[in-house]
Write a sequence for this structure.
């Protein structure tokens, strides 16, 4: 069955987590991650899970989005807003039909405000669910629509090729290293580093770097830091 990872970021209502687990189970998904849930799972959550208690019991609780994406190679954030980012935008169907079967995570934001810009900086693409002018899907409905399309694509045999990309945690380490380097050489500062990081993330995420390329870039940045520190030495 498809190995899509469902990541619920700061979910507020345990009942919605239970209903999301039920939606996942209906369509063969079991890999559930919860990022900083605002309340513990309740009896009501298990009641709404309805035969998907194993999905809840197996859920991984993380403190950060980066932790929840460890081991994945591609992250998609669900959003209802049009964004200026150059990241690719998919419908649930297009994502299911064109993306690899393995290593993909889909992030769903809190029930009230959705994913923040900081959450979305970890994503290489967006999923937008087409709706009429009035759009008010709840969390479990959004999970169900994505899971349904993923299941149908698997059932039709529409599987994309293996994604030759490195795990997200290696890229996150690379981005941390890059920003340290840019701050040290004066390329950016506290006021501008957010937009600089967004730009470089967009560039390198589109490049689908290999592990060797990540290592080479980090070697370059180590050399830059070494050279800059040597110049700084009286």
């Amino acid at each position: 069955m498809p190995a899509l990872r469902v990541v619920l970021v700061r979910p507020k209502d345990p009942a919605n987590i239970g209903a999301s687990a039920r939606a996942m189970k209906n369509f063969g998904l079991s890999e559930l991650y919860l990022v900083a849930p605002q309340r513990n799972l309740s009896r009501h959550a298990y009641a709404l899970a309805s035969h998907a208690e194993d999905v809840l019991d197996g859920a991984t609780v993380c403190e950060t989005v980066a932790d929840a994406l460890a081991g994945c190679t591609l992250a998609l954030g669900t959003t209802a807003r049009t964004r200026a980012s150059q990241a690719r935008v998919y419908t649930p169907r297009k994502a299911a039909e064109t993306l690899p079967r393995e290593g993909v995570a889909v992030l769903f934001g809190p029930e009230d405000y959705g994913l923040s810009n900081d959450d979305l900086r970890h994503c290489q693409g967006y999923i937008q669910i087409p709706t009429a002018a009035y759009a008010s899907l709840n969390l479990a409905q959004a999970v169900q629509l994505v899971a349904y399309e993923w299941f149908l694509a698997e059932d039709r045999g529409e599987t994309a090729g293996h994604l030759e990309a490195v795990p997200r945690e290696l890229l996150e380490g690379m981005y941390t290293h890059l920003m340290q380097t840019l701050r040290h050489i004066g390329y950016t500062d506290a006021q501008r580093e957010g937009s600089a990081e967004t730009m470089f993330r967009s560039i390198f995420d589109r490049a689908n770097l290999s592990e060797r390329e990540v290592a080479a870039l980090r070697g370059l940045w180590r050399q830059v830091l070494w050279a800059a520190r040597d110049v700084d030495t009286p």
About this structure: Residues 168-232 form a domain with the Helicase, Ruva Protein; domain 3 fold (CATH 1.10.8). Strands lie at 5-9, 31-35, 60-62, 74-78, 88-90, 104-108, 125-127. The mean pLDDT is 87. The chain has ten helices and seven strands.
